[in-house]
Specification:
4 helices, globular
Length: 135
């Protein structure tokens, strides 16, 4: 009977951890893609009705964030920060400092921001190319 070495056990735990983060990032990416598609479609409809121009670009931004997050790229967090800052600016432009009016505009995007921050361990992981392979 062979026993796993400490290094083997640590490597398998690390592998499981990476797999768990990958799954979590992809689940969040799927949710963001769905939200983004709904926002973009509704936003295009609002633009056609001469309404707010916020929702279509915000929805497209979320779809792009979802693609980057699916690929586990750090750019996903950077782009989401831009979408979040644009959302904050739009919310203040639309309702000013009426804090109760800010709640429905800012709570969900801020919760998503927190979820994106939790995904940091999954982002930016690049595997080193094998020796002797073209880059």
């Amino acid at each position: 009977m062979t026993h796993a070495t400490t290094a083997d056990t640590a490597a398998s735990r690390g592998q499981a951890r990476r797999g768990g983060w990958r799954l979590a990032a992809r689940c969040l990416a799927a949710v963001l893609a769905l939200i983004g598609l709904v926002l973009a479609a509704g936003g295009i409809w609002l633009i056609a009705l001469d309404g707010s121009w916020y929702y279509a670009p915000a929805g497209l931004g979320l779809v792009l964030v979802a693609v980057l997050l699916w690929r586990q790229e750090m750019a996903a967090l950077q782009l989401y920060l831009l979408v979040w800052l644009a959302t904050v600016a739009w919310a203040f432009w639309e309702v000013g400092t009426d804090w109760w009016a800010q709640v429905p505009r800012l709570v969900a995007p801020t919760v998503i921001l927190l979820a994106m921050l939790v995904m940091l361990p999954a982002l930016g992981r690049r595997r080193a190319p094998a020796r002797g392979t073209a880059q």
